[in-house]
């Protein structure tokens, strides 16, 4: 039997976010890092497979190429429905990549219609009348308006997506969604007749997502943030079960590596420092000056791991980041930090860390690749959108790891996540 849902996620933390929601709805999920070279046997035991790409901010043609490779792999593994996962804040530019990837997947699947909804009410992302809200404010008034690569200044998703697609974009508004699966399906039929190819779907609650999930049963392709995933497993008769999230027992030293500069991560770093636990700050200017900052961080780790969790972080407030970027260039600073934190993560694992929190999407990508991890089993949720995972290291040992999206997680995430892992295993 093949897999039910084949997912293509446009970044690594987003992929675990999606996998987490599928697991919570009862599916057994495997997350693969990039498209595997080998055959479909990796997915043998899973109801869903999530392929994590790093395609959110690359040129649109590259994102399309990677997504089509992922699609080919998922189809060869027997996927019955394809789920394209993007950010709950719809991170993209007028050049893409959400529109071009969606249309390329539609063409490859030979389908004339799909839906689009980044709604994730558990993390306060809601869509009403096609407009995206983050907490109590429109997307355009949220921190996303200042994003360095994908500034989001228009909250009207019909217009945002329409600027990225050849196909016409329409709306399934909340009145219809509240009416249930039949009403939604009738609206989809009407939109199809009008020649609409993609419809933004409103959702302000998990109940809306469950109704949408039932309505899109049988569509070859759905596109969404992670929220829609809570409404899909029921289409295959799958029900929530604790067994879906079981991981092997944890052990080894505990560490946090944070390269995220998001608001929520800044709060989490501050909270960790306030708790008086061991922490080491990675300064990009010292790396640029040729100092062996990774070596210093690892020496610090060696003296403090016994009192862990320890924190190695480059997280700073926006003003400091701007100053560093002004001196080094944004891309260069990012790359220096990512390379250093990836080396630190490798060194931590060599020194016996087996429980690792990584904060930030780009940072997670760099760390996971440096550790040679090719797949993740998804375990229990720590906070909405963030699960513990288990990965096989190249030497066969198990590493418990969580990849935290910058804007997710409560203030005590860097300490509270570790006891939760022990509790779940007992
Ligand atoms: N102190 C710093 N100065 C400049 N750039 C930094 C600093 N710390 C982290 N960065 C870079 O900022 C980017 C953060 O992206 P990411 O890891 O996706 O997290 P987030 O999106 O939550 O901020 C990475 O490229 C990282 O290397
Ligand atoms: O959908 C979401 O918000 C997340 O899953 C996600 O993709 C976050 O991206 P980063 O903030 O870049 O980690």
TrEMBL record:
SUPFAM superfamilies: YgbK-like. Residues 255-414 form the Four-carbon acid sugar kinase nucleotide binding domain. It holds the Pfam family NBD_C. Keywords: ATP-binding, Carbohydrate metabolism, Kinase, Nucleotide-binding, Transferase. Transmembrane segments: none annotated. It is an enzyme of class 2 (transferase). It catalyses: 3-dehydro-D-erythronate + ATP = 3-dehydro-4-O-phospho-D-erythronate + ADP + H(+); 3-dehydro-L-erythronate + ATP = 3-dehydro-4-O-phospho-L-erythronate + ADP + H(+). Residues 5-230 form the Four-carbon acid sugar kinase N-terminal domain. GO terms for molecular function: kinase activity. Its EC number is 2.7.1.217. Belongs to the four-carbon acid sugar kinase family. NCBIfam families: OxoTetrKin. Catalyzes the ATP-dependent phosphorylation of 3-oxo-tetronate to 3-oxo-tetronate 4-phosphate. This is 3-oxo-tetronate kinase. It comes from Streptomyces maoxianensis. The gene is otnK.
């Amino acid at each position: 039997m093949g897999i039910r849902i084949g997912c293509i996620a446009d970044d690594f933390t987003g992929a675990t976010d999606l996998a987490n929601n599928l697991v919570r709805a009862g599916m057994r999920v495997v997350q693969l890092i990039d498209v595997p070279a080998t055959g479909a046997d990796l997915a043998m035991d899973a109801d869903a497979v999530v392929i994590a790409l790093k395609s959110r901010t690359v040129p649109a043609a590259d994102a399309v190429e990677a997504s089509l490779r992922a699609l080919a792999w998922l189809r060869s593994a027997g996927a019955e429905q394809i789920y394209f996962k993007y950010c709950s804040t719809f991170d993209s530019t007028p050049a893409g990549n959400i529109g071009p990837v969606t249309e390329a997947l539609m063409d490859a699947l030979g389908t004339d219609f799909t839906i689009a909804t980044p709604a994730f009410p558990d993390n306060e992302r809601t869509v009403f009348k096609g407009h995206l809200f983050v907490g109590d404010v429109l997307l355009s008034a949220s921190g996303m308006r200042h994003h360095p690569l994908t500034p989001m200044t228009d909250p009207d998703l019909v217009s945002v997506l329409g600027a990225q697609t050849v196909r016409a974009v329409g709306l399934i508004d909340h009145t219809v969604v509240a009416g249930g699966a039949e009403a939604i399906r009738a609206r989809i039929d009407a939109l199809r007749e009008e020649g609409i190819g993609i419809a933004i779907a409103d959702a302000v609650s998990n109940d809306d997502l469950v109704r949408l999930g039932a309505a899109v049963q049988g569509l070859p392709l759905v596109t969404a943030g992670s929220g829609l995933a809570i409404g899909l497993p029921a289409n295959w008769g799958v029900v929530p079960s604790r067994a879906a999230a079981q991981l092997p027992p944890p052990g080894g030293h505990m560490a946090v590596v944070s390269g995220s500069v998001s608001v929520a991560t800044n709060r989490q770093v501050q909270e960790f420092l306030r708790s008086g636990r061991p922490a080491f700050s990675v300064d990009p200017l010292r790396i640029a000056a040729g100092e062996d900052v990774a070596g210093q961080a690892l020496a610090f780790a060696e003296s403090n791991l016994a009192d862990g969790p320890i924190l190695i972080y480059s997280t700073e407030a926006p003003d400091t980041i701007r100053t560093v970027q002004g001196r080094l260039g944004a891309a260069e600073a990012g790359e220096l930090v990512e390379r250093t934190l990836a080396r630190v993560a490798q060194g931590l694992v060599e020194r016996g860390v087996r429980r690792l929190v990584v904060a930030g999407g780009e940072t997670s990508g760099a760390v996971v690749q440096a550790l040679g991890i090719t797949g993740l089993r998804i375990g229990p949720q720590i906070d909405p959108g963030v699960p513990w995972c288990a990965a096989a290291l190249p030497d066969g040992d198990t590493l418990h790891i969580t990849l935290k999206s910058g804007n997710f997680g409560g203030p005590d995430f860097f300490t509270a996540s570790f006891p939760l892992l022990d509790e779940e295993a007992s």
